[in-house]
Amino acid sequence: MRCPRCGKETNVLVEGVCPDCYIEREKISLKKKVVHLCPRCGRIKVGKDWKSIGSIGEFISSNLKTKINEPKVKVEKVEIEKDRLHVLFVVYGMLGGKHVSKEVDTTIKIIREVCPSCLAPDSFDFKLQFRGDYQKPLDEALRIVDRYKLEKKREGIDLLVRDKKAARDIVKSLRKKFNFEIKESYKLVGEDVHSGRKRYKATFLLRFK
């Protein structure tokens, strides 16, 4: 059969036209055009979870209104402007047995909401993992900090503190009295949407001899 719109041969018609013509005129939209964004760390709410802004594709995929079967989303560009997110993305998948894709430019309203992690009065972003012969070094460390949290692990004890200065002060003090190896690792957990400052969680592995 032929498509009545473009005249090309086609095996199937979607609402009276071939898949290419249909996808060309289809207005792909979102069921929900509002996203909750944390002004402190820059994460967005996807379902019940708070995730990095890079998860905006997941948010879009879960809210798509399209006839494309099992649509996939590839985000090309994201811009934050005051109370709006401008997102350019490509939707691709199967329609009438044929691979199709379409570029979509949309605007999503931002509702600023502080996420549970940033709202918590005690946000411990720096972890010191005490391993090996750690009991005396740990006792020394607990004399240095005022606010902390301890987590018992099979390999030892994790000491969680609120800021980088507290973690550095502990390491500096322990260096003077004890012999240990240290390994540092950092994980990006968000970005302040106003200042652009990145927020990291850090882990210091201290292995005492």
Explain how this protein is built.
- Helix content is 18%, strand content 45%.
- The protein has two domains: 19-116; 121-208, no CATH class.
- 20% of the residues are buried.
- By secondary structure, the protein is an alpha+beta fold.
Summarize the structure.
The chain has helices spanning 19-25, 56-61, 116-119, 135-142, 164-175, and strands at residues 29-30, 34-37, 44-46, 49-51, 64-65, 69-81, 84-95, 98-112, 126-132, 149-152, 156-161, 180-191, 198-208. The protein has 209 residues and is an alpha+beta fold. It has two domains: 19-116; 121-208, no CATH class.
Features:
209 residues; alpha+beta; 2 domains; five-stranded mixed beta sheet; four-stranded mixed beta sheet; 5 helices
